[in-house]
Write a structure and sequence with these properties.
Elements lengths: L1 E10 L15 E10 L5 E8 L10 H7 L12 H12 L4 E5 L4 H11 L10 E5 H8 L9 H7 L11 H12 L4 H5 L3 E3 L11 E4 L3 E5 L6 H5 L2 H4 L2 E2 L5 E2 L1 E8 L4 E8 L3 E11 L5 E10 L1 H18 L1
Parallel strand pairs: 1-4, 4-5
Antiparallel strand pairs: 1-2, 2-3, 5-6, 7-8, 8-14, 9-10, 11-12, 12-13, 13-14
Helix pairs in contact: 4-6, 5-6
The structure holds zinc ion (ZN).
């Protein structure tokens, strides 16, 4: 399997409009990518400018950051033409996308939808979020480090400019090729531009620490909170067996819920469930179950008590 490490540059004009009023939130103006083979060796690269069709005015910050010359984008072709060449370049062999952060694959699909192109997929797309993986690798999971800081920290040579699609894809690939194989085995991310539609499509990610479920989309929030399956607290070490509830699900805002359970063999498990709205307007949930300590469970209990007091 090949790895397509890609990066996009996009433009959002400075016209003061709300994002909900826009036909297209971000217009892609450049696509850059590096192809790695199974052994994570660079075997090809891709870099093309896109001539804007939606917003002629380029945001001055974007222009400055990218170092765009006047009229430079006019040398590019339409998004549709560039995107079609990019997909052809990705090739017929199996591949998985890799990007710095989690936004690129969504914006790519939004732009494709805008131009009524055939969708990449109708389901969630697995990909590697190199930013997240790098954070885990260096033990700073909350790390919001930017790409340049990560490249410096990793001691990589800075031999191409940053903030352009090709350069950023290249550095992301450089960081990716040094990742632990073990880490890559169970740390896929999923782009949720298309959420799961059926129970079978629901996403489960299990690693040493976490048990994640991304549910299928439903019409109402209540369809989630009333679902035993979606709200179950399972012990993944016991093979997804539901455990005894210690703290029932509670929430302060009907968006984020907390709960806890107990497995006699494997101890305390805390749950966090977020209800989100998909691009197509359905509700779905992201449930994360984590093994924890009695101490932390007591903290959750306190939180629940406090909340009940303040809402009485
Ligand atoms: Zn267990």
């Amino acid at each position: 399997m090949n790895y397509i490490v890609f990066d996009l540059e996009w433009n959002q004009p400075d016209d003061g409009k709300k994002s909900s009023e826009r036909k297209l939130l971000f217009e892609i103006i450049e696509i850059g990518a590096v192809k790695l083979n199974e052994d994570k060796k660079i075997i090809d690269s891709f870099c093309e400018l896109v001539c804007p069709q939606v917003y002629q005015e380029i945001n001055w910050r974007t222009k400055k950051m990218l170092g765009l010359k006047n009229g430079e984008l006019n040398q590019g072709e339409t998004f549709k033409a560039v995107m079609n060449r990019f997909l052809k370049w990705c090739g017929k062999e199996d591949y998985i996308f890799c990007s710095w952060g989690s936004q690129d694959l969504t914006e790519l699909q939004r732009n494709m939808k805008y131009y009524r192109m055939e969708p990449l997929s109708n389901k969630p797309i697995p990909f590697y979020n190199v930013q997240k993986l790098y954070g885990i690798q260096i033990g700073e999971e909350e790390s919001t480090k930017n790409l340049e800081a990560a490249v410096e920290l990793a001691g990589l040579k800075k031999d191409v400019p940053f903030h352009r699609a090709y350069g950023d894809a290249y550095y992301t690939a450089k960081l990716f090729m040094h990742m632990d194989e073990e880490l890559l085995k169970n740390h896929y991310s999923y782009d949720l531009y298309h959420i799961p539609h059926t129970k079978k499509e629901e996403i489960r990610i299990c690693n040493e620490k976490e048990n994640i479920l991304i549910t299928r989309g439903v019409a109402k929030k209540k369809d989630i909170t009333a679902s035993r399956q979606m709200m179950a607290i399972n012990c993944m070490k016991c093979g997804q067996k539901p455990v005894q509830a210690k703290i029932r699900w509670f929430s302060s805002n009907n968006k984020i819920f907390y709960a806890a359970g107990y497995c006699p063999k494997h101890g305390y498990i805390k749950g966090k469930l977020k209800i989100r709205k998909s691009e197509q307007g359905e509700y779905y949930a992201e449930k994360v179950l984590t093994y924890t300590t009695e101490e932390e469970i007591n903290q959750v209990k306190e939180k629940k008590k406090l909340l009940q007091k303040t809402t009485k």
